[in-house]
Amino acid sequence: MFNMKWMPFAAATLSVLLTACGGGGGDGGSSSSSSSSSSSSSSSSSSSSSGGSSSSSSSSSSSGGSSSSSSSGGSDAVILPQTGNPIYGELDNYKSWLGSSLVADQTRADNMITWQMDHGGFYKNDESTYEAPWNGSSDRSGWTGEGGVELGTIDNDATVTELMFLADVYQRSGDSKYRDAARDALEFLLTMQYESGGWPQVYPKRTGTTYSNHVTFNDGAMARVLILLDHATRLEAPLDGDLFTDEQRTRMEAAIGKGVEFILKAQIVQADAKTVWCAQHDPVTYEPRGARSYELESKSGKESMLVTAFLMSQPQTEEVEASVRAALAWYRSPAVQVADTAYVKRASSSDDDTYNPIQSKPGSTMWYRFYNLGDDTGFFADRSGIKQYDIMAIDAERRYGYEWGGNYGSKLISYADSVGYY
User: How many structural domains are present in the chain?
Assistant: First the structure.
């Protein structure tokens, strides 16, 4: 089946794997039975045409996770070599917040802790937020839920970035207050996971704007949480040592298993073939869901890349491998690739509304961000919510204020080729 030797996964992974065979919590069922469920729900959906430097860093050569989804693969499941997997580097955003000294980083971390909400989460703050402590009265989040509770989020790398920063400062300083804050952030991430295995964009639930309560692959939100949990269970710096308790690490393994289960069940089926994922999915039915008015239900060329890459970091059970190979087949399909084309954003200094960001570029391959559920046609939309098949047909505000294409599949395909997933 493979063109190279593989590394069998550890006995501890097998234990988690067998435990996960019982299904993804309240949604229950094995992945094989849920696959038909996904096919059923996806088929009905696709019938519609709408559709400073740090002493710690993440390793780029680690080869394996410590938990997976249910499978009949048992001890035959393997872990692919991880060199070149696009997931590596996804947790490194915090490094841009590091200063020139530990003292400077501790000051930022001290400020950061004051912005952490009682549930352990953070809002999508930028670096400048943590130049000063919270004043004790202003809003710490731009979003609220029932009763006015302030919401934490995983949107725009939020909470994940803060956790990584706090972990880094703890490992260099040894001050337990940073460890405790990182543990609180982890509790937030574990608590917000749905019983079905997915992660919403926010926690607690957002009122009024319901798309934030969907399981969110958009901009790598859920995938990045899973990558963090996986790195932590494998004790990758700065998530190693006594940063987390043994009890938390056990819960992380279970959370990863449930997360993989959700991914497998949510994979969109088109014409009886598994494809990729939408940017959002229903937490109960697994069906694709839209978000903002211009983010319609779709197969997502952008968001599915990191989901697939994460699955390739997990034990390759029969079900996981089948899911990965199906997604890779979709990315390799000439029907979804736009050959000799590149997505080139308009210069920020330009106000030329005749500029088309989809440019001819020999040798380059572009994928659209969004494709119809029922076929492989790429589309666009603006705030009117009307689907268009010509990017110049949407208004300039969304045409240049959103990313509609990119070389999304290139690194994924290169990595797949390197490990023999042709």
Answer: 1
